[in-house]
Fold:
Amino acid sequence: MLSTGPGLPERALGSFAARSSRERSCLGQKSASTGLLAALCALLGGAAAAQDPLEPIEPIEPIESRRWAFDLFPSTDPYPPNVASPHRLTNSVELLAMGSSGIAGSGDSRMFLRLGGRFGVLRLRPRANPSRSLQLGIEAGFAGQFDNDASQDNIGWDGFYGLTVTAARGPRLAWKAGLLHTSAHVGDEYLERTGRGRIGYTREELLAGLNLDLSASWRAYLEAAHAHELRIDLQRPWRVQVGLVFEDRDRFAGGGRFGWYAAADLSSWEERDWRTDWALQAGLLFPAGGRVWRAGIAYVDGRPPLGEFFQDSESYLSAGLWVDL
Structure:
């Protein structure tokens, strides 16, 4: 028969208390190791918990007066991109099949990565004529190439930053002016493998451009730039660029949601003895959320998009994805 003497409850309670103390100690150690994570989650999630998770983020309301409206951090820009240019700031990833290249020791297959773009800070527009606007923006970006035939070693990369003013003079005409700084670099792995050191290519230029809508689908642009800061004797100040862009955004879906495009770009640099470099690009486009996604193919013949190799020429066919900012 099981004993139920007077000492049993006291012993049971004592054992339970000891076990509870050990469990609280263990839990305290676990809490100490996860306290920072819990605090971070509370900080980031506290404000969101009071809202419907599916509720869209409200855009910043424009500041308006009787005659003018001011938009903070606008998501679009009055001046459209030079679509086919391999030197423009954008977000893209491309697989390159090289036809020819003057870059010594480089392979026949590369990855071309670009990050950045033009980011609007403030837009001013008259309330009586919303097709006109003036916008201040910041340009910043990265462009680098990686050699697929050499374990994706970085061949080189360029960094960019600048300040631009863009404007729309109505529904058809836009212009831009700005200051852009470029600093070029040679990849560490490429340098170790080939011994090709950095020449110190740096360029800071004043630029101006004009874009004209020729019709609902066609537009053309003309740009020129003059560098006032050059680091090496082989550099020269002037460059010019022209291009043509066709876009049919309603081709496959109404409301401008799915279409196709084609573009051509010609550029010439004084430091390359005014050689004509050219590029073609075509594919599908998907406007969404104030951005334009592009998937297509491109062909380029001319200056590499890496400043350290500005004296070389190359040609390649690429397939890629681009996102216009």
